[in-house]
Design goal:
The chain has about 270 residues and is mainly α. Among the domains are: about 1-35, no CATH class; about 45-130, no CATH class; about 210-270, no CATH class. The protein has helices spanning about 5-25, 45-55, 75-95, 100-110, 115-140, 140-175, 180-195, 210-220, 230-245, 260-270. The longest helix is centred in the middle third of the chain and has 35 residues, at about 140-175.
Length: about 270
């Protein structure tokens, strides 16, 4: 086998083997084709309510005239399903996080309660874990165990190798960081001198705000930005929009009922 063929085989086979390992680590079989969780897994009535929530969540990235700027409906459906599925965990970890506040604003606009979200989260979690349970049943069959046992053995070997390497690194770092009596006095003196002449830390610069994005969000986002609970964002967006209006000498006209309303907003903001 030539060097070129070896390199080509390595490039093509490595990705395939990594996908198999990723499936096994995710609870799937090595040759299984994982299915993407979306809101289509739920009953029709619930799906209609989640589609209403989805329309509020992604109102700024759908319905545009340029198809390249629109997000696929399948992608929105999958993102909505994952938001609902992990909503209780994110809410427990960071109740004031921007993603939690955004989801709760859209929940209020869509008339969805927290109890509904928790119930749907349980349903989507069960739908996502069903393939893993099926994989456990298939492992009991002797025909499917042979290939999986080999992959699991490889994974366990890699884990053991990583642990041994981590232990060696710990020993090396401990040997390098062991202080000497002659160096301690010098380091203390140098630290004191550096602390006396150390410059004051620079103030962290504020993140640059994209004016056209704020303009587009102000006129298209649902619920509206001026109804948001975040006072700082609401005030900042109001000032940015007012500032941009100063450069529109001829004024502008936006018709919210027009079919190309979002495209008009995008064009004026740019």
């Amino acid at each position: 086998m030539t060097k070129t063929n070896k390199a080509f085989a390595y490039i093509t086979n490595t990705a395939r083997e990594e996908r198999k390992v990723a499936r096994v680590l995710s609870g799937w079989s090595a040759d299984h084709s994982p299915s993407v969780v979306d809101i289509g897994e739920i009953d029709h009535t619930t799906r209609e309510r989640l589609e209403h929530l989805q329309a509020h969540l992604y109102s700024s990235c759908t319905g545009l005239k340029d198809s390249r700027l629109n997000v696929s409906s399948k992608v929105c459906s999958s993102l909505t399903a994952h938001l609902v599925r992990y909503y209780p965990h994110v809410k427990a970890l960071a109740p004031e996080a921007p993603i939690v506040m955004r989801v709760e604003e859209c929940m209020a606009a869509a008339g969805i309660t927290t109890a509904d979200m928790l119930a749907w989260s349980v349903v989507l979690r069960e739908a996502a874990t069903a393939p893993a349970l099926e994989h456990e049943r298939n492992e009991k069959k002797p025909e499917s165990c042979k290939g999986n046992e080999h992959l699991l053995a490889v994974i366990e070997e890699l884990i053991a190798s990583n642990r041994a390497m981590a232990a060696r690194l710990t020993v090396v770092e401990a040997a390098l960081l062991k202080p000497k009596a002659t160096q301690e006095t010098t380091e203390v003196a140098q630290t004191q001198d550096m602390s006396d002449h150390e410059p004051k830390p620079k103030r962290r610069k504020k993140k640059v705000t994209d004016l056209s994005t704020t303009w587009y969000e102000w006129y298209t986002r649902i619920p509206r930005v001026w109804d948001s609970a975040d006072r700082h964002k609401k005030s900042e967006s109001r000032h940015i929009v007012a500032f941009m209006k100063l450069f529109l000498d001829a004024g502008f006209v936006l018709n919210p009922k027009a079919t190309n309303y979002k495209d008009d907003v995008l064009c004026v903001g740019q």
